[in-house]
Design a protein that fits this description.
Length: about 400
């Protein structure tokens, strides 16, 4: 064989999150549990296809009459429904056509479009993310040529928010610094800001003229569709312009369909049109135009008089089950480790619990007990159920006892 062109390509390190799922898949042990990736599982351990989504698929099968390209900015009905979900049906922003929304390849795609826009058009080379943040934030932002700095967020001593440190760091940032904020269900910690801290963040963003970039991947998983969008409302009420990347992977349980969007709240209809036109050019440069299927299903569900309430119920069931599992997890851990305090787990929200377990414990959990969580100690409580929670807690206890 002639000299290969690829002989000096090294293996990439496994992905910090999806690599754990690959290792889980390759593990033949029947008692294995995947608490790594942020994916909701029902009481039987299945990743459900929601009824509302199944019904929408049937409707779409009767409606689809072409496979031609979508417009670069995506399915029109999806864009409108998404804006109404984020900002409210009666939002004056929407009446004034001040929001530029472009469908994206999942929430990650929305982050990518947003950061490319910031890099190209807003003259910025550094973005601030929470310490810690979702692993892929850094990956996506650095790949766009940005430096990634952190602002204080999680306090491992109190298992809560370093609110004062976070706010004082944000106060030091130069005008027009982009700041990534998690709207709710902070990934990986599950620790969210309360309303008064959000108000302070919004005030600082206004005073310092920062560029807020909100990642909204878990709408409906904390308190509900409307309450979870409260931080966005606060930015709107303050009259700020900002970015939101959102995802339907979790709220519709359609992970592999890759449905998300980037929305940019601008100052006027004219600005929104200009911003949309530039984001469309970025889409064209990266993947030309978006896929159709998942966004059509979301558009049908959100605008259908029966499927919409059906979806809201299904989302509520997912939220309630996660809540129940979080309580069960804390209670069972307390039962097997009575000397330790796990009350902090109850204050966390969304799919994740930052368990406080060390990297050594997380590795031993995988190697000895086939319980897969992230090295950071992040555990997906949305994958716990009545059949696996005892095994998980006992495995944790056998490693933690005496430490
Ligand atoms: C996670 O954090 O586990 C999810 O957002 C899935 C992913 O792509 O990382």
């Amino acid at each position: 064989m002639a000299t290969s062109l690829f002989s000096d390509i090294h293996m990439a390190a496994p992905d910090a999150i999806l690599g754990i799922t690959e290792a889980f898949r390759n593990d033949p042990t029947p008692t294995k549990v995947n608490l790594g990736v942020g994916v909701y599982q029902d009481a039987q351990g299945r990743i459900p296809v929601l009824n509302s989504v199944q019904q929408a698929a049937k409707i779409w099968a009767t409606q689809e009459d072409t496979k031609t390209y979508l417009p670069i900015d995506g399915v029109p009905g999806f864009i409108q429904a998404n804006q109404e979900l984020l900002f409210g049906k009666d939002s004056s922003l929407l009446k004034e056509k001040r929001v530029a929304t472009v469908q994206s390849v999942g929430g990650s795609g929305g982050l990518k479009l947003g950061i490319e826009f910031i890099k190209r058009f807003m003259g910025q080379d550094t973005i601030y993310v929470s310490d810690p943040s979702w692993e892929n934030h850094r990956v996506i932002f650095e790949a766009a040529g940005m430096k990634v700095e952190t602002y204080p967020y999680y306090d491992p001593q109190s298992f809560g928010l370093r609110a004062a440190d976070m706010l004082s760091t944000l106060r030091t940032l130069k005008p027009r610094t982009p700041v990534l904020l998690h709207a709710c269900c902070h990934n990986p910690t599950g620790v969210d800001l309360d309303e008064s801290t959000w108000k302070e963040v919004v005030d600082i963003c206004a005073e310092r003229e920062l560029i807020p970039f909100i990642d909204f991947a878990y709408q409906g998983f904390a308190d509900g569709i409307v309450p979870d969008s409260r931080p966005i409302q606060l930015f709107v009420e303050k009259g700020l312009t900002f970015f939101v990347a959102n995802s339907f992977a979790k709220s519709f349980s359609i992970y592999r369909e890759r449905v998300g969007a980037l929305s940019v709240v601008t100052g006027s209809q004219k600005e929104a049109a200009a911003v949309t036109s530039q984001i469309k050019r970025i889409v064209r440069m990266i993947y030309s135009s978006p896929p159709s299927y998942g966004a059509q299903l979301v558009a049908i569900v959100l605008s259908h008089p029966e499927l919409r309430p059906m979806w809201e119920n299904e989302l509520g069931e997912m939220r309630n089950r996660i809540h129940e599992m979080r309580h069960l997890f804390a209670q069972k851990l307390k039962a097997v480790l009575p000397d330790k305090d796990f009350a902090f787990i109850l204050n966390q929200r969304g799919m994740f619990s930052y368990s406080g377990l060390s990297v050594d414990v997380m590795k031993a959990l995988r190697e000895k007990y086939h319980v897969y969580g992230l090295d950071s100690g992040r555990i997906c409580v949305a994958a716990l159920n009545h059949s696996n929670v005892d095994y998980v807690c006992e495995s944790v206890a056998s490693l933690v006892k005496g430490t």
